[in-house]
Amino acid sequence: MLPTELLSHRQNGEEIIPKRLKIDDKNLAIATELMTCFQKAVGDTQGALERQLLELEGDTPDYKIKRGLAYILKSAFCTFEVVSPLEPQMLRERVFAMAAKSPPSRELTEVTLTKIADELSHELEREVLPKQVRDGLYADLSENKILTAFDTPDSKEVLHRYNLSQVQGVFYKASQLIINAHRNVPGQYKLLFRYLKLFQLMSYIEGDADHGFTITIDGPTSLFTPSTRYGLAIAKLIPALLHVTKWSLSATLQTRDFYTNTWKSGRFTLNSECGLVSHYSAGKPYDSMLEESFANKWESMKTDWVLEREVDLIPIPGSVMIPDFRLVHPDGRTFLLEIVGYWRPEYLQKKFSQVRRSGCDNLILAISERLNLDKAGVKLNDVPAKIVWFKDKLLPKSVLAMME
């Protein structure tokens, strides 16, 4: 995410338009020049790298672009580490305690550093030099951290990340966000809903898989106290949304006028034709080893039942439930299978509440015997689903027996 001072917005009526970079030779050359600087800085301090980047900025009119791209490279592709013979705080305590025993002087400082280095060499059973002790005293400051690795990206990837960050910054000022996801495959919906849950966004979901879903999300400026963390969570959702094939988005923005100190309303729209590129993974093949093990065992079964993964979505008022598998028989019979192996009480309460509200009469719940449902306050007497119990692994024959 780019710093807010780098987000260049202009207001055209009520429409807020983030400024993006063209993927052209000029900007690709800037990205390449910056990456070369980072590659040469591996093994040096972050402070030294910052000074090199300032020299590259110079007095050119595109210094903001260089600063933004450098921020992307630092935050996404660099590894900065504290390099010190001891934890810097512990090292400072030892050095300052020994130095306090004698009056300050340059000569005694070197004596103190040498004594500490000798003590550490003996304790750590490796050579520690006085210079390492000196450098390690404040190694935990950001400017003294060492660039230990730089995962060099493709130049186009850096520009795509820059453009995505420009758009993400808009949502810091959102009071409401409405996403319309139009008739996509269920796996894409599940990925989107998973990120909604991961970022703990306050959302209301309407619709179904055949017609699409409308997701309404409260923005950070709708809270009693505007939250930077919540605005960041909404911004993080955008790369996940880019994995959905067809969608549109509308955001209501609240911006404070600098001169009159009053709030003004704006709007921002985006859709699946925006050209932005996500850096998020499109999702794992399976959510858990339980699911993967069950699917692999099913393939070796001799049965007419066909196992399909994440192809049904069950609408629930204000939410949606996506069973792990669908089982289809050539004679037309169909069952949905949900594997419940996760133990957290909040998850169990929510999961069984969804099952009760789903009204689904062909749902099978495979529940681990290791779960303490009583402790989670979950009762099974009113759950409208067939139940299969398992211990360590869910066996296909148990599910087959339930269906037959």
Description:
The protein is of the alpha+beta class and 404 residues long. It is built from 12 helices and 16 strands. Strands 6-7-5-8-9 form a 5-stranded antiparallel sheet, with no helix packed on it. It has a 5-stranded mixed sheet with strand order 10-13-14-15-16, covered by helices on one side. The longest helix has 19 residues, at 106-124. It starts with 8 loop residues before the first strand and ends with a helix. The model is unreliable at 4-13 (pLDDT under 50).
Number of helices: 12
pLDDT < 50 runs, ≥5 residues: 4-13
Rg, please? 28 Å
Measured between the Cα atoms of the first and last residue, the distance is 53 Å
User: How many strands?
Assistant: 16
Helix proportion range: 25-40%
List keywords for this structure.
404 residues, five-stranded antiparallel β-sheet, five-stranded mixed β-sheet, 39% helix, 22% strand
The gist of it:
This protein has helices spanning 25-41, 46-57, 63-77, 88-99, 106-124, 130-136, 155-168, 186-198, 228-241, 289-299, 345-358, 396-403; strands at 9-12, 15-18, 78-81, 146-150, 174-181, 203-208, 212-218, 247-256, 263-271, 306-309, 314-316, 319-321, 325-328, 334-340, 363-368, 386-390.
